[in-house]
Amino acid sequence: MIILIQCNDKIGLVAAIAGVITQNKLNIISMREHVDKQANRFFARIVSEQYSDVSLLLKDIQSVLPEGAVISINPGPEKKIIVLVTKEYHCLSDILVRNHFKTLGASVQCVIGNHDVLKDICERFGMPFYVVNHENKSNGIFESALLEVINKYPHDYLVLAKFMRILSPKFVELFPLRIVNIHHSFLPAFIGANPYKQAYIRGVKLIGATAHFVTNDLDEGPIIDQKIIPVNHTYTTEDMVNAGKEVEKSVLAKSLKMLFEDRVFVYNNKTVVFE
Amino acid sequence: MIILIQCNDKIGLVAAIAGVITQNKLNIISMREHVDKQANRFFARIVSEQYSDVSLLLKDIQSVLPEGAVISINPGPEKKIIVLVTKEYHCLSDILVRNHFKTLGASVQCVIGNHDVLKDICERFGMPFYVVNHENKSNGIFESALLEVINKYPHDYLVLAKFMRILSPKFVELFPLRIVNIHHSFLPAFIGANPYKQAYIRGVKLIGATAHFVTNDLDEGPIIDQKIIPVNHTYTTEDMVNAGKEVEKSVLAKSLKMLFEDRVFVYNNKTVVFE
Amino acid sequence: MIILIQCNDKIGLVAAIAGVITQNKLNIISMREHVDKQANRFFARIVSEQYSDVSLLLKDIQSVLPEGAVISINPGPEKKIIVLVTKEYHCLSDILVRNHFKTLGASVQCVIGNHDVLKDICERFGMPFYVVNHENKSNGIFESALLEVINKYPHDYLVLAKFMRILSPKFVELFPLRIVNIHHSFLPAFIGANPYKQAYIRGVKLIGATAHFVTNDLDEGPIIDQKIIPVNHTYTTEDMVNAGKEVEKSVLAKSLKMLFEDRVFVYNNKTVVFE
Amino acid sequence: MIILIQCNDKIGLVAAIAGVITQNKLNIISMREHVDKQANRFFARIVSEQYSDVSLLLKDIQSVLPEGAVISINPGPEKKIIVLVTKEYHCLSDILVRNHFKTLGASVQCVIGNHDVLKDICERFGMPFYVVNHENKSNGIFESALLEVINKYPHDYLVLAKFMRILSPKFVELFPLRIVNIHHSFLPAFIGANPYKQAYIRGVKLIGATAHFVTNDLDEGPIIDQKIIPVNHTYTTEDMVNAGKEVEKSVLAKSLKMLFEDRVFVYNNKTVVFE
């Protein structure tokens, strides 16, 4: 059972929360807390061994927290996700393989592509794949078509696994902090299109990738994780793209793991990640 | 004020400890705890904002902990250390510079060398330097001479900053978990002499360094931190030695910082480090 | 066209080799050379743009090299490999995905498992899978059965992608420097069985993986690549195993890329890798 | 003896250059070359064992290169450098220590500070220190005062070791590709002032440092090296500053090593670094 708490900070919070849990005869397996002093914000993730009356526990915890506290207990069974892709296979394949072997920590419901290139790999894993083409369509119509597929399945998160279309504010607002994107640069460097080309021209010695929540500021949403790899003068733009794929795959996998294990909190356009 | 606790685990420990602290009107600034389930061992490091009657608080905390608990409160002012060296300057200089600018987190009392090579750099920082030569001496006499200097100064820790002599069990027992060594390999690989030569011959692609507590099993004491850097076929043994110096310096500095901030616990020949 | 040369070193080798290539009107796209001064050994990897009479060029190059030189020109089309596995899917899946999308740089001919666990994933990619069970069999009979399958297919390399059986000297000798293994530790630390358990007990702060050629000294063959990731006191043995899988997958992929691009030379139980 | 060549690419360059060197009875110890295909630019760094008539060799090499080639042979004895600082000690101390122990690969002539904070540490190493205060001065007068000190000493490079003033185009033009700066961010992210504060607000998970040549585009000069370290939600801006100092020190040291060993070429606002 996992208990997640985010609220304003005040003296004695840890003791109060731990007290409530102990009074309910629950043993705390692990407890992580963080206080952002500047923002006066408190975060806790508690794993407890035993189970009890959740709604009662929720009420008990609520009673010792400041007003406006956000609590969630036992965020339910495995998360359900929908993956959006364009043409690149590396992130999707990694997700499909982990999903297949039940090590993703979430269950992929279906995959939607704006091209059909990745249909074959999905079918090999028995994964429903939908082509929602964006060509010759207004963005509104394109996104309506996406939503039509999305709404066929339960979904806790949408994962943009190299989905190369920009989603409209209207669409994004339907999924607040529930869309995760892998961006192919070490944000905030090289925001926008063609980051590897920009990196090549600038002559950087490291390239990176950033997994972040999608908000309505392009490439400006809360960062979940980032990773880099060294490059050098021998790398062409294409070499950087290829090297970048490895790091994109790796950082997306790590971020999804953190997310699906309920280790990620968001506030002030930043994240607290209890690794 | 920092409170350190190590004891056997039991249900409700976090709540009990946090409760005692809150009852004493102390606000918890940060609290880190860890339970080793396998060893049934509990560790906590609590930073609290305000100060109070320490001996009373100690007694209060003790009362809620299992028998055999080790508690320390407010481990006193800045640690005092003595540094032992041989001929290599890189780790010592880094310590002297940080000590000089008051960013070491400890106060170096003196430096002891079994050669006089590093006397000059110490004098430049106004640091007392003692030569205790090991040549033509039994180990017992050599170590007695070391102790004579050491006992002139208060000392919480001895830091072996590339001290190339092996200390006897008798000597080590005088400083249980209070001698820190930087070993020039990624332990447990390349235990013993000439690790870089061993690494060269083996053709490894990474070399590393390990900071650890000294115990009577050579290079087998509890590891505080480790770091590596990539090497390749162009590295001679000497190149590895030089590259290794950078990582030795860096890993020792990091480990001392952890130690001096009271972030390191030891049990079962391992460490818990609350970074 | 790739030209690989390994020979004893002598003055003027680079000029002589480059001269021969230029005389044959070939432009050198890239040239990498290395001299191990201590071993007096010369290595070169030359990529040239244009093609010509290979056997003539080979003879021309041979004529300017010392006796005993090993040259290979244009090592032929894509490498062919056979993958051996036991039960773990992570390395195999990564290879299958890359193979499927033609980015492996080699062509997987078939997969052999001593269990049938990974049959399903192979079939999903249309990859022939053979179970060669080791139970209730002498090692000789087991290896004969392996060879029977192996010999059905052309094969430049055997890749042990978490194949948990130790191959006999007799078997290994059939494939000199043509068997690549991924070992789940930062060799030479934790040689042998259960490296993650050993790492857990020792309390290391980094774990790693090593891709190496298999020789008849267990875990002592020439190292192709190594990589590590940080771990800490919160990792159980199982957590280390899981974290290790990511690095195993990554280091094997990188090593195979180097190998399939003819960037790896072996001598004195070490490698030269022209990245 | 080190030979550096930068010129337009053409067929047979390696053979021609190597041929000239061999004809002059010089053995090539190591040769590194790189061709930027897109820019059609050739770079070579040749280390040869023996010495000969440099001006003749220069003429001989020139004769086989395309027009406009830039060659330098045996770039003379140890480089001479002048270090500019403001108040932070970490980069300067590292340079002073290496200079003192003759492992910097260059000889520091003097240190100039726009504050006097670092005078003491310089004096401890017998290093001339000049205060050139910028307060209540026009930039022109400040820079004239800097130049007055600089011109007292021979100088191959100026090193800005956390010098927190922006130099004017007029000043920078006096030292083309001869001013090295350490910038406290992973450029091009967080250009300009207060990068750590920017990083904190953005909630990045990595922070870095960049060593680069100073040009008249602020923070846009050719990058020599970059390095990062992971940070997390527990880091305040001040923690990031402190963690950043370690990486600044490390990346500046590495870049200076590359520079002083004549391993760095510049073209198109990028570098080729033969590590």
Topology:
The structure is a homotetramer of 275-residue chains.
Chain A: E1 2-8, H1 13-23, E2 28-36, E3 41-48, H2 54-64, E4 70-73, E5 79-85, H3 90-100, E6 106-113, H4 119-124, E7 129-131, H5 139-150, E8 157-160, H6 169-173, E9 179-183, H7 195-202, E10 206-213, E11 223-230, H8 237-260, E12 264-267, E13 270-273
Parallel strand pairs in A: 5-6, 5-8, 6-7, 8-9
Antiparallel strand pairs in A: 1-3, 1-4, 2-3, 9-10, 10-11, 12-13
Please give a structural write-up.
- 4 copies of one chain form a homotetramer.
- With 275 residues, the first copy, chain A, is α/β, with parallel strands linked by helices.
- The first copy, chain A, folds into 2 domains: 2-73, Alpha-Beta Plaits (2-Layer Sandwich), CATH 3.30.70; 79-273, Formyl transferase, N-terminal domain (Rossmann fold, 3-Layer(aba) Sandwich), CATH 3.40.50.
- Helix content of chain A is 32%, strand content 29%.
- Chain A has 8 helices and 13 strands.
- In chain A, strands 7-6-5-8-9-10-11 form a 7-stranded mixed sheet, sandwiched between helices. In chain A, strands 2-3-1-4 form a 4-stranded antiparallel sheet, with helices on one face.
- The two termini of chain A are 17 Å apart.
- The mean pLDDT of chain A is 93.
